[in-house]
């Protein structure tokens, strides 16, 4: 099994770590330390050895930061993690602050003690973030000190070893394009833009560009490293030597020079006089400092692999369809099992995590989960990023809702699906909220839109039915998804926050409106879908784009108020369920087939 349920972090971790960190600060003559969540590669999911914020504070959320002083400490987290931050950190040691409205830059300007020297690791901070911190520090009379070695790494004596798993080729049968072709077309764009080299420090960029995968990061098949891509399509790939096999060298060929990860900084110092493209949102301030020191002409711009990676080619789309059909079989088996077992009153959240993982493993193709399953019974379902542990594990109550958000990593695609399931007799209120969420989901599935439309322009469609009743949800509606890569992938997204990236054919994006009643229940309906040219609209003047749904799993009919659905919405739901039955039905049998026929019956 992939998922574990151990208790991570917690207040005692912070109580243990803070004295050790403060001892290091005293040796360095520092008054404080800035501790971001990010690692050297700006990963969303971190290797255990780079979970510095969790080790220092006990807080294990995926977004946050801390400032540790001699006698005080502050933890910054966003709205998704407010309760988690409070529960995982020692109240006598950490003051809680909002990461968005009261972030570290705001704290520096308003509360930092004048004259203080606060250290930071330039390898962990993007340059634009650092610029904001420095501006606030200057106004407060505070000195930010760049450190050669991270004090946390010095204090963390039992720090896990860095990952060294072998890097494996990702063949063209899955990628749809050779690395040589990708490097050539990206290199040609660099040349057109008058650039000599692109610095790539995001592991996902390396995975896509070189058609490689690894096991350095949990839940995402990444190999940690960096690269330099030249305009002629040749490249230097910097990774730990123990990850490199003869097969990998042969696969990449002579146009890719594989060098030790430790040689990356030296290679940056060899760029004097060259025009070098670097993405300030993905590369650290340290990379910029080295390039400037070397005399390179640094050009800030988006990582040139991001948009091409988001535009899935026909082979990747075909792979996504296979992966979702395979995943749909696992989901049908799971949902049938759940409906049989839940009424017995013995299931817990961990039982359900193990069950859905087991059904995916039974496909024979699962490489990993795409994230730890969010398995929320009753009130736990109201936390969008809930992670069950042996301490929080809750039984499934009768006459309640159960929310399961889960996904798998397959060689041909990455899946992510959420279903809210009725247990017993849900209340009229639950049905009303579920149907409103479903109406938003259907609206975002059916929409047609002109070229140039962004996700932020579409977001209101998913929220309108909730808004009409005075409700909303506090997370984005849709995130991009990789092809056997990250379950969260940019640059496109669907959210209230303005996004300048237009939806283009081939982009995979989630569709996941929700509703959350604290101390009550949670509702979310999520499918993955991809952008495709839409059929012409009679009498229309412009070509339109639309979405095609990838996920194949029944939506719980027992939670729907049919009278709240319009005829067009009802038609969409019936057509979707007919497709699920047509594509998944022949691949299941016996009780599962009987269950699936009932679950997909028209309303």
From TrEMBL:
<dbReference type="InterPro" id="IPR029149">
    <property type="entry name" value="Creatin/AminoP/Spt16_N"/>
</dbReference>
<dbReference type="InterPro" id="IPR036005">
    <property type="entry name" value="Creatinase/aminopeptidase-like"/>
</dbReference>
<feature type="domain" description="Peptidase M24 C-terminal">
    <location>
        <begin position="543"/>
        <end position="603"/>
    </location>
</feature>
<dbReference type="Pfam" id="PF16189">
    <property type="entry name" value="Creatinase_N_2"/>
</dbReference>
<dbReference type="InterPro" id="IPR000994">
    <property type="entry name" value="Pept_M24"/>
</dbReference>
<protein>
    <submittedName>
        <fullName>Putative dipeptidase PepE</fullName>
    </submittedName>
</protein>
<dbReference type="InterPro" id="IPR000587">
    <property type="entry name" value="Creatinase_N"/>
</dbReference>
<dbReference type="InterPro" id="IPR032416">
    <property type="entry name" value="Peptidase_M24_C"/>
</dbReference>
<dbReference type="InterPro" id="IPR033740">
    <property type="entry name" value="Pept_M24B"/>
</dbReference>
<feature type="domain" description="Creatinase N-terminal">
    <location>
        <begin position="21"/>
        <end position="148"/>
    </location>
</feature>
<dbReference type="Pfam" id="PF16188">
    <property type="entry name" value="Peptidase_M24_C"/>
</dbReference>
<dbReference type="Pfam" id="PF00557">
    <property type="entry name" value="Peptidase_M24"/>
</dbReference>
<comment type="similarity">
    <text>Belongs to the peptidase M24B family.</text>
</comment>
<dbReference type="GO" id="GO:0070006">
    <property type="term" value="F:metalloaminopeptidase activity"/>
</dbReference>
<dbReference type="GO" id="GO:0005737">
    <property type="term" value="C:cytoplasm"/>
</dbReference>
<dbReference type="Pfam" id="PF01321">
    <property type="entry name" value="Creatinase_N"/>
</dbReference>
<feature type="domain" description="Peptidase M24">
    <location>
        <begin position="320"/>
        <end position="532"/>
    </location>
</feature>
<dbReference type="GO" id="GO:0046872">
    <property type="term" value="F:metal ion binding"/>
</dbReference>
<dbReference type="InterPro" id="IPR050422">
    <property type="entry name" value="X-Pro_aminopeptidase_P"/>
</dbReference>
<keyword id="KW-0479">Metal-binding</keyword>
<keyword id="KW-0378">Hydrolase</keyword>
């Amino acid at each position: 099994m992939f998922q574990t349920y151990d208790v991570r972090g917690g207040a005692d971790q912070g109580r243990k770590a803070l004295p050790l960190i403060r001892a290091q600060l005293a040796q360095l003559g520092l008054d404080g330390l800035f501790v971001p969540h990010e690692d050297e590669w700006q990963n969303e999911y971190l290797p255990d050895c780079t979970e510095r914020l969790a080790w220092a504070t006990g807080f294990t959320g995926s977004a946050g930061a801390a400032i540790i002083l001699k006698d005080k400490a502050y933890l910054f987290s966003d709205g998704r993690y407010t309760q988690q931050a409070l529960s995982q950190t020692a109240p006598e040691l950490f003051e809680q602050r909002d990461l968005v409205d009261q972030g570290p830059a705001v704290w520096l300007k308003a509360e930092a003690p004048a004259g203080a020297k606060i250290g930071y690791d330039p390898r962990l901070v993007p340059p634009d973030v650092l610029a904001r911190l420095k501006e606030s520090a200057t106004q407060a009379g505070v000195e930010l000190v760049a450190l050669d070695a991270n004090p946390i790494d010095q204090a963390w004596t039992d720090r896990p070893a860095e990952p060294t798993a072998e890097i494996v080729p990702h063949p063209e049968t899955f990628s749809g394009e050779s690395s040589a072709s990708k490097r050539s077309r990206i290199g040609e764009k660099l040349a057109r833009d008058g650039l000599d080299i692109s610095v790539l420090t995001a592991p996902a960029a390396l995975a896509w560009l070189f058609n490689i995968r690894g096991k350095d990061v949990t839940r995402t098949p990444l190999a940690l490293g960096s690269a330099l891509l030249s305009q002629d399509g040749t490249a230097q790939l910097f990774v730990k030597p123990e990850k490199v096999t003869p097969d990998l060298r042969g696969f990449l060929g002579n146009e890719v020079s594989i060098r030790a990860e430790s040689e990356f900084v030296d290679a940056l110092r060899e760029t004097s006089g060259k025009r070098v493209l670097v993405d300030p949102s993905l590369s650290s301030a340290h990379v910029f400092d080295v390039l400037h020191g070397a005399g390179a002409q640094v050009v800030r711009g988006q990582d040139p692999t991001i948009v091409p990676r988001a535009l899935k080619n026909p082979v990747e789309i075909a792979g996504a369809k296979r992966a979702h059909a395979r995943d749909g079989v696992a989901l049908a088996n799971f949902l049938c099992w759940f409906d049989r077992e839940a009424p017995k009153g013995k299931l817990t959240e961990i039982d359900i995590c193990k069950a859905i993982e087991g059904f995916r493993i039974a496909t024979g193709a699962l490489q990993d989960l795409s994230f730890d399953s969010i398995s929320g019974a009753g009130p736990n379902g109201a936390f969008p990023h809930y992670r069950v542990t042996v301490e929080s594990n809750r039984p499934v109550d009768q006459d309640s809702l159960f929310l399961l958000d889960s996904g798998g990593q397959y060689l041909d695609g990455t899946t992510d699906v959420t279903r809210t399931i009725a247990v017993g007799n849900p209340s009229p209120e639950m049905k009303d909220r579920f149907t409103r969420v479903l109406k938003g989901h259907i609206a975002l599935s059916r929409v047609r839109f002109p070229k140039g439309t962004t996700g932020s322009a579409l977001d209101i469609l998913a929220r309108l039915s909730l808004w009409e009743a005075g409700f909303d949800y506090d997370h984005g509606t849709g995130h991009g998804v990789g092809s056997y890569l990250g379950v969260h992938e940019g640059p496109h997204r669907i959210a209230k926050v303005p996004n300048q990236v237009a939806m283009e054919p081939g982009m995979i994006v989630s569709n996941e409106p929700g509703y959350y009643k604290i101390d009550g229940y949670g509702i979310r309906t999520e499918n993955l879908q991809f952008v495709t040219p839409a059929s012409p609209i009679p009498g229309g003047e412009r070509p339109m784009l639309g979405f095609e749904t990838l996920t194949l799993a029944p939506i719980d009919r027992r939670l729907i108020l049919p009278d709240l659905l319009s005829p067009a919405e009802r038609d969409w739901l019936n057509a979707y369920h007919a497709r699920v039955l047509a594509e998944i039905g022949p691949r299941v049998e016996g009780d599962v087939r009987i269950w699936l026929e009932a679950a997909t019956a028209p309303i």
